[in-house]
Amino acid sequence: MSTFLYELGRSAFRRRKTVVAIWVALLVALGALAGILAKDFDDEFTLPGSESQQALDSLNLTFPEVSGTGASVIVVAAEGDEITGDPYRAEIEEFVEDAEDFADVTAVTSPFMAGLEGVVNAEETAAIVNLQYDGDPAELGDPAKQVLVDAVDALAAQLPAGAEASAGGGLFSVTGVHISWVEAVGVVIAFFVLLFTLGSLRAAGMPLITALLGVAIGMILIVLSTAVATVNSTTPMLALMLGLAVGIDYALFIVSRARDLMAEGHSAEEAAARATATSGSAVVFAGVTVIIALVGLGVARMPFLTVMGVAAAATVAIAVVIAVTMVPALLGLAGDKVRPKPAKKRADGTDRPRPDQRFFGAWETVATKVPALTVVLVVVGLSLFALPASRLELALPDNGSAEEGSPAKINHDLTEEHFGPGYNGPLVMTAGILSSTDPLGDMQALGEDVEAVDGVEEVVLAVPNPTADTGIVQIIPEFAPDDQRTNDVVHELREMAPQIEDEYGFETAVTGSTAVAIDVSEQLGRALLPFGIFVVGLSVILLTMVFRSIWVPVKATFGYLLSVVTAFGAVVLVFHDGLFASALGLSETGPVISFLPIILMGILFGLAMDYEVFLVSGMREAYVHGAGARGAIRKGFMSSARVVSAAAIIMFSVFAAFVPASESIIKSIALGLAVGIFVDAFIVRMTLVPAVMALLGDRAWWLPGWLDRIMPRFDVEGEGLFHQVELRDWPEPDSPYRAYGEGLGVGDPASARPGGLRSGAGGASGALFAGVDVALLPGQVLTVTGHGTVAFLLTLTGRLNADRGELKIGRFVMPEQAGKVRARTPLVVLDSAEDSLVSSARELAKLAQEPPELLVVDRADSPRDERTARLLTELVRSAVDSGSAVVLGVDDPDADWMIPPQSTYTLLDLDIHRGESEPGSADSASAPAPASPESAPAQFLGGHR
Q1: What's its membrane topology (predicted)?
Q2: What is the CATH number of domain 51-173?
Q3: How far apart are CA 468 and CA 230, in angstroms?
Q4: pLDDT in tens, 475-494
Q5: Domain 427-511 has what CATH class?
Q6: 542 and 73 Cβ atoms separated by less than 8 Å
Q7: pLDDT at 304
Q8: How many CB atoms lie within 10 A of CB 441?
Q9: CA-to-CA distance for 883 and 3, rounded, in angstroms?
Q10: How far apart are CA 341 and CA 265, in angstroms?
Q11: What 8-state DSSP symbol labels residue 688?
């Protein structure tokens, strides 16, 4: 990864104008496409397969009169007037007649219709007009809403002074993306943090430019996706919050690292490439963890939540790609203008520490002075938030959470004031009445049974459909849709199903938007544990692979859980208990959005892993380079604390900016994320982590050997890259060698048996070969024999890593660029039953036409037939003539019939390079450096290095 990103960063630096132009062109093209194809957002939450959703879908076929989208108009008489008298009655009736002609309206119910109950309140001061539309809210869109609002405004103008009229209902659940100037406050704060951290106006502008570009592209893609998918209006806001935060942070990590490298004396190009490789590797890893966690929201099996997760994940992915391409391109445009000024010197010539270094040095000292005390204080303190977190109440939003002053919010509040909270969330019981001999009588009797249930305010309607095969009972509960007691009413109504079937022979189901919301909330609750196991398990696995440790991921995961609990507790204190509610612009308290816990857990997981990777990778890098356990903690902390603090402050600012101005859904998510980020970065990662690491000491980096061998490696610290860069001009600039190595050795016999290849003679324990030096120029031929031949050939072709020594194949450094060597260096095996390695006559002939720079053949003295022998001879001759180097594995050391007569070749007998004798013994040769190209065609000299 680091090697790929190094080359990507260098390429972006050199082609900076092209990279910038491509991103800008992509933004413009996607924007134009979205303008043509985009549709409205849809805030209707559905749960395929649930009882409520199945019943609702069935009504579309059996009772279309009550399917589609509903809307309501509430009219409130002036003080002292009655709604049933004139002019109210006449004006309402006229409005009903006009509304019947609205586009897509299938039915309008007058509150004065005979036999209709519950639409005029007991005091006769308010009445409700219900409208039914053909189509879902997304299809109807703003035009339908505007027509209704205009008509209601006209109605209100005809009523006496003091009367009110407002439209609301399901039609108004469609909303757009609302972004105010308040959200920009977070970006402004982020800019000043960047300026303070980086100390350069140009450098500070880079993360903002890339983050805004990434968010713009992500938002456009989300808007564009409405053409083919149902997307709710929370999705773009969530993507905006997350995209801004990670976009700024990811770019900051790379820019900061590049400036540090420039301060060390590297050129602007080399600094950009190395920063992209090292910090870019951590950015990719951190981004992948966020993406996996967000995509993992699909574990809840809820389409709207899956769409939210995928959309947010796509925005994060764009932020990652922009960080590793656009940032080095901008560094290329800036060049040396972002090189930091030299550090101030003390009188003795040493660098004077910056104020932040003294601050973070003191922080680390306090955190680790008495590490056990630090751990106890942090764990106990944060665990106290588990008490309010245990009282977290969840519900899906209704129009009560709409923006203050909007028609939907006014309608909701007026309905609750004059009719009761249950009228904002009616329930519907459906009944299959095909077997009924008295549909009207049975439905009336069923309605009376339902009205007797505790928690039911009244039954408004209990009627069969025109074909008398389906009946509905419209139920008004006593409580608000988001009240836990309404959940109890729904469950009690569903528990009546066996009784109703015994008495009437009807199968029933409870549905309606409120029942759907309850089912969604309960499904989310059930999904929370599996998702938590998924996230925690993923955390342990990924961090174990990155840090090669057992205790580091355990500690990181425990800290993550503390951050999540604290975030939940803070949300409860504000949104349930009302703490600081007025200061945060919260008009009412109550349950929070049902998917808050799973969203919060997913996002905090990814961001917590960001800080863990950037902080602890510095500690690991110091530890593997020889610093003791205690010294590694301080060195890693000091190298990362400034950037991690800046990143956390930026994320906190971006999330916190959404709290005072956003709708309640976003408020709760933004508050939880802001608190979670602050706690995770400053209390868990920068305080608890150093203390735990100090307690563990060297044990922090312990990993069982068997686990270390089977796990893949992620070079987040860039050790492989530094090795590659170090050997880039080894043994000399523009080296002509096709293969060059010193002190090569392979010590595990089992590693020389991939794919059914022979393992060499014998099978004795110990090294297969050791202390082998190689310098092979174009046109030279080497024959290899003895125990370990296959291991040696696999090493030269990039299919096996040497245990020790240094090796380059052409310009490629091993093992970091083994993949490129494998792609360019085929391993030809004669007389083998392994199909993937056997070279047919056609393949040998094809290789002879265009030989690779390094031709490697095993079993070269054991062709299957005369034709294969002839083709091999032609292949070797062609390779030598074209300037390739040739390596032949043979059983017979004297076999040379396949080598062109004019060629000179060298024989390497690996049996004398088994590593079993001590340096200077009789069977061990001295090991001078390989000869230069001018002095010798090839050298294969044994000896221990």
Answers
A1: Multi-pass membrane protein
A2: 3.30.70
A3: 34
A4: 999 998 888 889 999 999 99
A5: alpha beta
A6: no
A7: 79
A8: 10
A9: 28
A10: 11
A11: I
